[in-house]
Design brief:
Blueprint lengths: L1 H8 L3 H13 L1 E2 L3 E5 L1 E2 L8 E2 L1 H13 L3 E2 L2 H10 L3 E2 L2 E7 L3 H14 L3 E5 L1 H5 L8 H8 L3 E5 L16 H23 L5 E3 L7 H9 L3 E3 L18 E2 L7 H8 L2 E2 L2 E5 L13 E6 L10 E4 L3 E3 L1 E3 L6 E5 L7 E10 L6 E10 L9
Parallel strand pairs: 2-7, 2-12, 3-4, 5-7, 7-8, 8-9, 10-11, 13-21
Antiparallel strand pairs: 1-6, 14-15, 15-19, 16-17, 16-20, 18-19, 20-21
């Protein structure tokens, strides 16, 4: 912006404007975050991509004008209103599996791509054979890896222990986040205050806690990070199983954030008296086709969209079938005006078991 201002204040305003137009046309205020777990042919398909699939993903980014950026830099730019290159992508891995070092790291290092590993530290500290060591994490940190917080135990943080008070539950989660961050700093020197919710599960109380601690939080709901995003629960596209196939990958990395100004409800929690929850969204203006907006539920496929005003700024949607125990999603998308890209928003729901616990 300083360059733009000085240029327009100069005597060569017209020439400057012409020179700056290409840069402005190729700037953006959003980024796609990708979430991986395993990179292996021998791990559960539901949380895995093969090394060949990851190579296809990285080659596509390399061959099609994408900018792969550091997570901290991208988050700071979006929050501060600074432009990013169009088609900016951030690569993240959860849980610190050894196969990240064995199979992903060589591919990323060859490309010179930065990436983030969200570490649940207990298996690392205990030296579990299928997990990274601190030495491997430090080595990757020297080659573009950001090492970030994923809790100690990777537990369901929304679940209270039996007879645990609300304050004790809050304090326990605060202590776990702080202890993890301290251990990461001790072992790697990094202290970036990015946190990935285990299982992508959060609720407003925990999100408020995270914000008060100065952290940015990441979920596992699909979508694109933009200036209107909730920075305690930023979206990432999960890459595994059928969701990692190239056709879907191309659509997702080219997508844009559906500009959601307000959402009701704010919470992911599903109660027994409301097993078919409605999601109401209020949209800001954007370059998308409102008439083509569609929503989908993970348990029911396409679900109806009801506009609440003539201007089509507010709509509601709901599943016709009760959400199952566990995690579910509503995804809402609309094509851009030129039909080349999709605007995307996702909300994750969480229904606990009758005993108040969650399923993995």
């Amino acid at each position: 912006m300083k360059q733009l201002l000085s240029c327009f204040l100069s005597l060569k305003t017209a020439l400057c404007a012409l020179m700056l137009l290409p840069a402005l046309a190729n700037s953006a205020d959003s980024a796609v975050f990708l979430q991986y777990h395993h990179v292996s042919e021998h791990t559960p398909r539901s949380t895995s991509v093969t090394p060949d699939q990851l190579k296809q993903h990285l080659d596509y980014l390399d061959d099609n004008g994408f900018s792969v950026k550091n997570s901290v830099d991208v988050v700071d730019a979006i929050r501060d209103g600074k432009p990013l290159p169009d088609k900016t992508v951030v690569i993240t891995f959860d849980d610190a599996y050894l196969n990240i070092y064995e199979n992903a790291f060589p591919l990323l290092k060859e490309k010179g791509y930065p990436f983030t590993i969200f570490v649940a530290i207990e298996p690392v500290d205990k030296g579990f054979s299928q997990f990274l060591s601190w030495e491997q994490l430090k080595e990757m940190g020297q080659h573009g890896a950001t090492i970030a917080n994923h809790s100690i135990t990777h537990s369901h943080m929304v679940v209270k222990h039996p007879d645990e008070t609300r304050q004790a539950w809050i304090n326990r989660n605060r202590d776990e986040i702080q202890a993890t961050e301290a251990r990461i700093k001790e072992q790697t020197g990094q202290n970036v205050k990015l946190f990935a919710w285990p299982f992508g599960e959060a609720n407003p109380e925990l999100q408020q806690l995270l914000s008060s601690m100065g952290y940015v939080g990441f979920g596992q709901q699909s979508g694109v990070v933009g200036p209107l995003s909730d920075f305690t629960l930023l979206p990432r596209y999960p890459m595994a199983a059928d969701y990692a196939e190239m056709r879907g990958f191309r659509t997702k990395v080219n997508s844009l954030p559906l500009p959601v100004k307000k959402q009701q409800p704010a919470s992911a929690m599903v109660t027994d008296d409301n097993l078919k929850p409605s999601l109401t969204l209020e949209l800001a203006k954007g370059d998308f086709q409102k008439n083509q907006l569609q929503c989908y539920a993970s348990n029911a496929g396409e679900i109806p969209v009801t506009w609440l005003d003539d201007e089509k700024t507010r709509f509601t949607t709901a599943t016709p079938d009760s959400l199952p125990v566990g995690r579910s999603r509503y995804n809402c998308t609309a094509p851009s005006m030129d039909g080349r890209r999709y605007y995307w928003y996702s909300h994750q729901w969480l229904r606990l078991k009758k005993d108040g616990t969650a399923i993995d």
